[in-house]
Amino acid sequence: MYTQYQKRDFISFTVAEDQYNNSKGIRRQSCRRMWNRLSRLQRSVICIVLGLGVLCGIYIIPGLYSSYKHSHGEVNFFHRNKISGNEGEDNGVIDMPPNMQELRDKAAKQVQDIMDRRKSVKKGPPGINREKDNPGVHEMQQKAPNDEDENGEKNEEEEEDNSKPKYGPQNPRQAAVVEAFKHAWSGYKKYAWGHDELKPVSKTHSEWFRLGLTLIDGLDTMYIMGLNEEFQEARDWVAKMDVNPNVDVNLFETTIRVLGGLLSTYHLSGDPVFLEKAVKLGDSLLPCFNSNSKVPYSDVNLKTHKAHAPKWGPDSTVSEVSTIQLEFRDLTFTTGDQKYKAAVDEVMDHLLSLPKKDHLVPIFINANTGKFRTGSTITLGARGDSYYEYLLKQWIQTGQTEDKFIDEYKKAVEGIEDNLLKESIPTGLTFIGELISGNNFSPKMDHLVCFLPGTLALGFFNGLMDHHLDISEGLLYTCYQMYAQMPTFLSPEIVYFNTNVHGREDIVVKSADTHNLLRPETIESLFYVYRVTQDERYRQWGWKIFEAFEKYTKIPTGGYSSIDNVKNVNHPGYKNKMESFFLGETLKYFYLLFSDDFNLISLDEYVFNTEGHPLPIRDNTRTDTR
User: Fold this and answer.
1) Which one of the listed residues 196, 423, 493, 506 is annotated catalytic?
2) How far apart are CA 316 and CA 302, in angstroms?
3) What pLDDT score was predicted for residue 281?
4) 618/16 Cα distance (integer angstroms)
5) 253 is catalytic
6) Is residue 504 packed enough to be buried (19+ CB in 10 Å), middle (13-18) or exposed (0-12)?
7) Residue 320 appears among annotated catalytic residues
8) Per the residue annotation, which of 389, 408, 473, 521 is the catalytic one?
């Protein structure tokens, strides 16, 4: 997600203080890493096989000793059962384990149980209720954790509720994130209530779309955190809000932040007011699709419904026109009205039909001609990133039933590997560069690119190739180093990687790129990769980054601010702006990263839009594409 200001292309670098070597040859030497990379099923099967081998040894070895004794007269050192005769008599019967057939049957049943559980995990949401009189997915859990009946025993209803996700912090780190959210919310409530974004230093607000962006972006985060009082107050504001103000809005930003936020909150809470507002907003955005081609206009007036190209030029951004699909498709799935899905499906079909360089897209496309701008940069950073993200997520959204999306996604990942994936010098950090004018490689990498490790891990979770996870973990280490190598432990907006054999630092940050906008992409990827690997180091990395946000971006009077210089611990310089995605994504992903409950917004039940709003997976037919 971008700010309303157009981003300049910058360059950045940083000194690597350690000598970490991220090459695959080095990484694959770690047995622990290989073990963490195995799926739960693989780990369980290995443990069961080893256990069965031990039991077989216990059964066979006494028999061998017994045979040896009878043939050679040797002493049998195993304990003997007195199963017959008088006490003290030695009848020579060896104490035997249970029948081997029972052992085999038990082991086979354990393996089958694990496979059944794994199979159920991979098949999407178990029956989300779509009926009008019960439209929600979950209800807030308000029962006390130790409720007991008159006999002092927990009742059955409570035991059943234990399988449901518990909203509200369950450990100290989650509690710390909740406190951070409450601090951010207190500043927004005091100085920017109902407006788009908080300016925490000057204690005022800024307006962009006049849609209460921060409030709506934070709705589902509040719900998941169990902040009932704050949620109810925000809900009451939404019930009275005007979703059709006389203002021009950006189709992409309004869709991912407002439409996505309303739909997500509706699915979590079941409150129809959120769906009502989402439908009205969706209808006001539809005129963008009335272009001369199948590519939507970038902007529309919500009151007059007049759509047009951006003021800065005739082209739309490719990532923007390809990152509205999850939300409009969900609006169709929820309401039954096919017009929303039909509009965005036509856009995707058109994009998929256009010629590309190794399935990689340029960053600009003309809404009148429907063609890519010749000579556009190819990047996974600004204006290109979420095209690839939504290829995978549209496939997941409908239960892996639309092969056109996953086929293109896999080919695009191959294109990324062939054209953009490189290693820095001297320590071999894996990074994603850009193709300037579509051809000339540049080692520039936006922080926005740090969404990719999470997307690759999500693909692996849904059955894609193992080496996608290898790339994911290598890139995630690099994204972490973009934080760890800065004096403030906060990442700059853009970095450049050294590819010169004479260079001494892998990462260099240019003076124009030292700002940090409270972005979520690295935290998002830490969440995904931790959920997939269960490797605790990713939570440790996340905690260090969270502490840095607390130290350098927190404003005492309320809210958090973007900063100008991540390399200056004494004067980081406040930019006087708290982006709405800090509440909608950054703090949400921190909270989910630190959760011990994988059922809390399960990756088998929900797919996150690019603004961090979870939407339900709609089909329970899954396939393994390995």
Assistant:
1) 493
2) 18
3) 98
4) 45
5) yes
6) exposed
7) no
8) 521
> Per-residue DSSP letters for 371-388?
-BPTT--B-SSTTTHHHH
Contact 441, 515 (CB under 8 A): no
- Whether omega before 98 lies within 30 degrees of 0, making that bond cis, reads no
What pLDDT is recorded for position 314? 85
Two tokens, residue 215: 């409030």
> Among residues 426, 436, 422, 313, which one has the least CA distance to residue 11?
436
- Output the six-digit token pair for 394: 């549209």
Active site residue 493: yes
Interval 528-558: pLDDT, tens:
999 999 999 999 999 999 999 999 999 999 9
What are the structure tokens assigned to 47, written together?
Answer: 């443990």
Catalytic one among 220, 385, 446, 579?
Answer: 385
Q: For residues 211 and 582, is the Cβ–Cβ distance under 8 A? A: no
Strands 421-423 and 430-432: antiparallel
Task: Indicate which residue of 197, 217, 220, 253 is catalytic.
Answer: 253
pLDDT, one tens digit per residue, over 494-529 is: 999 999 999 999 999 999 999 999 999 999 999 999
Give 161-193 pLDDT, tens digit per residue.
556 778 999 999 999 999 999 999 999 999 999
Distance set, CA 214 to CA 53, 197, 210, 547 (Å)? 58, 6, 11, 22
Q: Compare 121 and 299 and report the one with higher pLDDT.
A: 299
Sheet containing strand 307-308, edge to edge, reads 248-250, 299-301, 307-308
Q: Look at residue 144 and tell me whether its pLDDT is greater than 80.
A: no
Whether 153 is catalytic: no
